[in-house]
Amino acid sequence: MNPGATRVGRWWRNPWRRPRFLAAVTWGYLAWSIVPVLIAIAFSFNAGRSRTTWQGFSLRWWTGNPSLRESLLYDPDLRTAIFQTLRLGIVTMAVSVGLGTAFAIGLDRWRGRGPGLANFTMLLSFVIPEIIVGVSLFLFFLFFLKDLVHLGTATELLGLITFQISYPVIIVRARILSIGRQYEEAAMDLGGSPTQAVQRVLLPLLYPAIFASAVLVFADTVDDFVTVNYLSGGSGTEPLSVKIYDAARAAPTPAVNAAATFMLAATIVAVGIGLLFFWRVSRGQRAKATQEFVGFQV
């Protein structure tokens, strides 16, 4: 018998061998996903107008000549799109997370046949393709509410909130189910009212899920294209994703790469802040909840 083949056979049958093949697949996937993004980021610092040929390092497309209005900082269209993107992201995050948390608690407390239908309706907006949501809302606003709401920031917010509210409902409700009712019941046994039990015990325990859903909603809103593309009311209300798409179909400059890099950086910062809050809040939340129980006896 060939000694080499024997060694290979023993290595293959060894369940504790190093997973070299899986590691190679993983690193290959990461490279395939990240390298194009890194190339796009690099060309946002290109000295020339080319997006395929490197012509030297420069901040021309970030903070270039104000008179040329071709950089991300001084291009009025890109600057307006950035503010619109941040506005949509912050407002959608605040409204969706607030309503979603309330809906999650309400679904958990609701008894009877209604919760199943309400939960199904909430999940339905989560699984329906976004393009169907965008087209449906566009037709609804255009033909049924044309005298009340005009296409623009208001319709974009309504569409985004409608689509994004499912995320906090699912995440927060999953957290509620994992916590159970024992903490609230203990708080009420110690003299607290149901409202106090929710405010002083349940909500602190839900903070990690609330922060996680807020980060997810903000990141997905910044990245959203389909819904806002249908519901925007002109160039003044188009967010950065739509601007990048429109510019990419023409003859874009590396300023578009700079805009895409800004979107990526905003998303990474939001995720980083969310993880920081999650870590700080989840460290001592159970100890804080225990202190609140004791406080009800005073």
Task: Outline the structure in words.
- With 298 residues, the protein is mainly α.
- It has two domains: 20-58, no CATH class; 76-295, MetI-like fold (Orthogonal Bundle), CATH 1.10.3720.10.
- It has 14 helices and no strands.
- Helix 5 packs across helix 8 (166-179), helix 8 packs across helix 10 and helix 10 (194-223) runs antiparallel to helix 13.
- The longest helix is centred in the N-terminal third of the chain and has 34 residues, at 76-109.
- The N and C termini lie far apart (81 Å).
- The mean pLDDT is 81.
Q: Features of this protein?
A:
MetI-like fold; 14 helices; 2 domains; 298 residues; mainly alpha; single chain
Number of strands: 0
The CATH superfamily name of the largest domain is: MetI-like
> Radius of gyration, rounded?
25 Å
CATH topology of the largest domain: MetI-like fold
Distinct helical segment count: 14
What is the mean predicted local confidence, pLDDT?
81
The shape is globular
User: Briefly, what CATH class of the largest domain?
Assistant: Mainly Alpha
SSE class: mainly alpha
Tally of structural domains: 2
* Spans of at least 5 consecutive residues with low confidence: none
| Secondary-structure element order, N to C | HHHHHHHHHHHHHH
